[in-house]
Amino acid sequence: MKAFPVSVEEIALIKAELITEYPEQMNYLSNEYIASVASKPYSKAPEQRRPIEYTTSKLLDLLAWREESGATEVFELLEVSKMPPGEEGVDPVMYEKAQNLCTTLNGNSIYVHGMDKQGRPIIWLRTERKPWMINNIQAEVNLHILLSDVAIKMMPEGVTDFVVIADTSSVPPPSPSFLVETLKGLVRGYPDRLHSLHSAPLGRVLHTVMSLLMPLMPGALAPKLKLVQEKAEMTTLLADILLNGEADIPTFFGGPANHEVYYPATGIGKDVHVEKLGNGFLMFDFDGMMSRQAVAVAAFEAAREEKKEGGGD
Question: 42-79: string of b/e by CB count within 10 Å (b at 16+)?
Fold first, then answer.
């Protein structure tokens, strides 16, 4: 997609309006991301850049959605989930929300691990680990908000979007309410954050899911979805996508990288530091995920800097 130039002065104008309405959320929006949103072609006139007023409105809507959806409290919920039941001073309603989020996290159905060749974080989605029936839609939505925000938090400098890779070997029956809430969150809460989504294999249930979602999608979103028929084809594609090529392909796509030591189908991974899980219900290796991603980001940025000093592109 073509990107138009955006001046420092234009970014400052946008930020001035955003900070007036949502001062406490401004750390969530980097200058690079604001510039990325502003630089895109305008949907009503693709030969032109988005007007500043349009970009400002889009970002104001993003911040409004974060407050309305509860996205601003998901990291707090995670910390509460590490506390033992009955902890003094913890709001019971907050604790129940934290328990529900924790239950969805413990399924290890979604996590951030590694990057693509441009440094974009990878969100891995394992649909066979999703519940057959979603009993708590808000908790499942909170799970996806949390992991999307983790990907954003762990981006190398200058990177503004992420990649989703889904193993759709077994897809539960679609929950229309959950699908609509997820799509609404992606469009309102994460504009221009999804670089691409790659999924395999393509089965009947996934066809049904897409038939429900496609009529609701903005025109710019649909081309980012890459549905691959067979897993073998995905294995070849991943070698070109993932930062370290074939070495980063997980075992469930025919590669050597074993994600199960951190994110098993049940229980706690064998390489997880149990003492960091707290005294609550959390079994998902959240702190380990953040630490591993931080190491990967530091290595990527160091390699990029070394290449730049050596005269590389």
Answer: eeeeeeebbeeebbbebbbebbebbeebebbbbeebbe
Q: Contact 121/155 with Cβ under 8 angstroms?
A: yes
- Going by pLDDT thresholds of 50, 70 and 90, the confidence category of residue 274 is confident
In whole angstroms, what is the distance from residue 226 CA to residue 289 CA? 26
Calculate ∠ Cα 245-250-253, nearest 5°: 100
Are 197 and 167 in contact, with CB atoms under 8 Å apart? no
Global pTM reads 0.94
pLDDT tens-digit map of 177-229: 888 899 999 999 999 999 999 999 988 888 888 888 888 888 889 899 999 99
Domains of the chain are 8-69 (no CATH), 71-308 (3.40.525.10)
Position 21 scores a pLDDT of 96
Q: Per the omega criterion (within 30 degrees of 0), is the bond before 201 cis?
A: yes
**Residue 60 identity (one-letter amino acid):** L
